[in-house]
Amino acid sequence: MAHFDHGAAALLPLAVAVPMLGASVMLALGRHVSRLVRDLFAIAIAAGVTGLSGYFLAVASSGRIVNWVATWTPLGHRSVGIVLEVDPMGAGIALLAAGLVTCALIFSLRYLESDTGHFHLLVLCFLAGMEGFALTGDLFDLFVFLELMGASAYALTAHNIEDPQALQGGLNFGIINSLGAYVSLMGIGLLYAKTGVLQLPLLGAKLAGHRPGPLVIAAFVLIFTGLLVKSGVVPFHFWLADAHAVAPAPVCMLFSAVMDPLGVYAAFRVYWTVFSPTIAPAHARVAFLSLGVATAVIGAVMCCAQRHIKRLLAYSTIAHVGLFFCALGLLREDGTAAAALYAAGHAGIKGALFLLCGMLLDRYGNVDELHLFGKGRGSPHLGLLFGLCGFALAGLPPFGLALGKALAEKAAIDQHLYWMVALFVLVSALTGGAVLRVTARVFLGLGDRPKGDAEYRAVGTERPPAQRLQALPAAALSAIGVLIAGTLALGVLPGARDAAERAAAAFIDRSGYLANALGHAGHQLAIAPSAPNWDLRGVLLGIASALLAAGFAAASCYGRRILVHVPALRLGTRAVLRALHRVHSGHIGDYVAWLMAGCAILAGLIGLPLR
Amino acid sequence: MKGLIYFVAFFLLIIGAFGIARSKDLVHAVVCLSVAQAGTYVLLLAVGYQHHASPPVFGSPASRPTRDVVDPLVQAMALTDIVVSATVTALLLAISIQIAKRNHSVDPDELNAVEG
Amino acid sequence: MSRPVRYVVFCLGVVGLAILLAPAVAHLPAFGSTFHPYRTLAVAAAVAHRTANVVSAINFDQRGLDTFGEESIFLASVAGAALLLRPGEHETERRPLGHARMLDATRLLGYVLLPLSTILGLDLISHGNVTPGGGFQGGVVLGTGLHLLYVAGSYDALEKMRPTTLFEWGEAIGAGSYGALGVAGLLASGAFLANFVPLGHFGALFSGGTVPLLNIAVGIEVASGGAILLSHFLRQAMFTEPAGGGRRASGERDE
Fold first, then answer.
1. Of the candidates A266, A261, A409, A440, which has an alpha carbon nearest to the alpha carbon of residue A346?
2. pLDDT of residue A472
């Protein structure tokens, strides 16, 4: 990987600068132009950044793109500057972010009330933050862009100031994410004190070859805390459901589809480039897998226990983040490639589901599954798309999400981790099943009419009832269509697997990352022989997950009839759910307590095996 | 006590977090967040300190450029950190104002809009 | 969770953190040591670009992208606060008539300090490349100093001195100029945020190339944005009230 394209390198910072310049223009002119002009301008900026990121991806697939900002290229092994270093994984997630922002803006064309342009401005700032976060190769710069994403996201979450849930969700999100980021900054300070550098490749070079001392372990734990908060890994996940349940639908889609996976991306980027030469994969693997399993299981259980549909989807995102963590936590090329495909596929499907939720909210003013029981019979199109997404989420081939899942299962089998295959099948079936259950109840009116307490407030209108749209807007539907088609294409297009594997090989290649940063050619990576996307076992496991999901959905629609006869099971389930419910209290104090406990757990997981 | 200053930094972080955990008022919680952040300032500046070194500014005619200055990078980081703190505090206070209006309370114990 | 349970969870976390951090602190370089490799490089780089204030050289020249991100955070937060502090559906803005009474001493102090703080702010911004200070610091002094008018008891005067639209333009121009200077660097010398302006003499008012220009851009942005931010909080506190007198019950819904 030794190919340098100076044209692309020079353009890298524009992925941040263009949306920020757009935001400045929006601030100056947003008030003075019509809604349509604002929409089109923001969409044009986002589309431009999408094109730029696509160009980066094309260039990066033949070699990393390196830009020492403002030409502070290193002398020897040192530089005072910031490096942007882009491999296919970074360019890919930047492309995903920009593409989804474009979709979100198209969906918002007639969706959100905004008369000042502030909504568009914040979305553009959010885009700039995500682009910078994906492209940077500097630890402190990572923190800055983490905060840029955060600041715009807090405000977007609380956008609907009439809704107490939105306000509380925004506040919990803001406090926990900020605290996590400050903990990360402490870790950055420790690492800087030890090494005197901030660039990821140079940090890795400084730590290489030394046994990890207490200082490095502490820095690892502190830095990861902030990134795990962003990813929504248990026990740092509490804010996520609160925020995702209340933000406007297009914003939820961005959170779930790319912001949380970006946290995972950054965690493993930092691990591979900085810590892998000192905390060896063999040691770190236990920690990553434990966190991944806990996140997947708790996310899946909580997902099934929800009746607020957006909250249900939020917990399903937590469950999937857990699965990504498991796949990446194998700390091997095949698992990394699988996670990349899985996350990209998940982005499309989960994005579509959140947008569908937005349309549901728009039509019925409510996203409470029980309240909506049978009411969706009048919207067969929505129901059809909802069901399709449910099956795709469960891992039905040939969607890209299923391809990622199949490859992750293959990677686990290659490592003889058969429990992990069961975890993947079960968790994806549970989360997909929960969506199918919603489809069956809301759109088909299947099963027993559930008895729920009428006081439950799973509402959250995004516009007054008088202005609700009766017809499905074409722009919104086309955004949803693009997302689903994109996921399908990912699974069907030949070469998707090969591309993911090449991206993964570059992602975990620390020495190449360092060499390219210093302006040298990295060593040639062994290119795996080209393999077809699908194999029979993966397809069968995918179909099994989808069938299991349908089974779960049926069981939960009609389950009450069976459960009545098995009191032990009923009481046990109820006790577990009540305990989980009590922990997920919505109380900011509890979340902070869990954040501290999470730090300690992470410290134990990473520190104890090294003693 | 060479580690005292670092102890102070982590103490601020933890006591700030504890303040949020026991808070009965959202404004208090937001201020506690700033206390926690103050820990990062102390840590950064402590990391960059050097005994008997001058400030990294050579503006006055008397000071010739020298390498014996305290680390300017941590000061730049702290400045960025301050901007982040100020702006995030403003955002969180804005949300708190709206919460106070909708709920007639800023006690986290009495807010139960989101749960489960 | 109940309070005791929460405190137990918290304390367990703190115990774990203490076990993690105590040995880590012991391994840090001693406080006040001479181990500062980045410092050595940064000072040399600042001197090479003839910027006397090394902190400014780092903020605007060596690590200008960080500051670009930082100013973006500022832009996003001011816009976010404006979005969150807009009057709600059931609220109106009402201007009370008449002036609040202020002590003459307070008024005098306000009017005396206003020009002083303005001069101080401008000085901090313009000399940010040579003496302690810079765009952000000066901008904060300017943006908040303006509110001495309010302290002096005249909100009307404050409003006259601070037309919101103009200040939004100011913020946009400040933030936009930072990005535009970056792009200018790209066009002039092939690298975003490159220091493409003549560097001048070490310690002079116009030295350091783009550093003073970026300082001014940030100063304009922060001064205008800070004033707007405060104006939203002030308006919210002073004028915004429920339309029908009574406030809407929480959680009330249209279902």
1. A261
2. 60
